[in-house]
What does this fold into?
Amino acid sequence: MSASETTPAGPADTPKTIAAPRWVVAAVAGFFGLFYAYAVWTAVSFLLQQAGADGGLTGYGWFVLLLPIVFPIIVFVAAVLVGRRRRILPLSLVMFAGLTVVAVFWLNVFSLTFTASASIYVR
It folds into this structure.
């Protein structure tokens, strides 16, 4: 082999990213999970409050007000699956980004209930 020829890089030559330990992933997910659970609990409370109003909800109203209950759970699971093999900071950023998406969705649903009340509530 001459000096101008290069040897292929082996597995020992490639940099390896080290994921956070499982207990750290669980702790970060648990910490952010409390905020996601708060979003779900708030959505359940709002649904029960609106369903108990005079006349109740239409089918569309139930659909619109059930989405904020299911959506944070889906986003939390997706954020954990995306961030579980990463370090602590990227995992925290993924969880926080998911939480901001949940907050924006909740505000959209909340504003929809006030602007489109004719189609959500039975009159």
About this structure: The chain has four helices and no strands.
